[in-house]
Design a protein that fits this description.
single chain, 90 residues, 3 helices, alpha+beta
Length: 90
């Protein structure tokens, strides 16, 4: 069973291990519509600080994006860590 890393607008992201090199990756499975929506978002926001798309694979019943892992890099959490709570919404 895969470990859930988080949920976003396009689906649930799971931790995976790449068989070829045993490297940890993030996997976003879903329908072709959801996967392509995420691909468009990643292409529109190409930036060194953003998660990068490594590959896209298709199984018999779903599509899956393979992304670089971003463990501990949830943007909202980083903003809260770096901002005093009373300044965040003022």
């Amino acid at each position: 069973m895969s470990i859930e890393l988080g949920k976003g607008a396009c689906g649930t992201v799971f931790r995976g291990i790449r068989k070829e090199d045993q490297r940890q990756v993030a996997m976003l499975p879903g329908s072709v519509n959801n996967v392509m929506k995420e691909v468009r978002l990643l292409e529109e926001t190409d930036h060194p600080c953003m998660v990068q798309l490594e590959e896209m694979i298709r199984t018999s019943d779903t599509w899956c994006l393979i992304l670089e892992p971003a463990i501990g890099r949830e943007l909202v959490n980083k903003i809260i860590e770096k901002t005093r709570p009373n300044q965040l919404f003022n």
